[in-house]
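In response to reviewer comment 3 from the previous cycle, which asked for concrete evidence that the modeling workflow produces usable outputs, we include below a single protein chain processed end to end. The sequence was submitted unchanged, and the resulting structure tokens are shown without manual editing.
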Amino acid sequence: MELYSFACPWCNEPNELPLDPGELGQEVVMDCRVCCRPIEIELPDQPDGEPVVRGEGH
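The workflow returned the following structure tokens.
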């Protein structure tokens, strides 16, 4: 499984999300591993697309 690395939109600390091909086109919410604030990640419809990361409430 591929890991997607990104910076938290709240504290800018690095985070990782395992990309499951079965979740393409979905939106997931995870907590930052440092500041624990919720992060929305919109997964692309296609395997070669780039996820969209944003803080909830932005």
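DSSP finds no helices and five strands in the chain. We consider this sufficient to address the reviewer's concern, and the full set will be provided in the supplementary archive.
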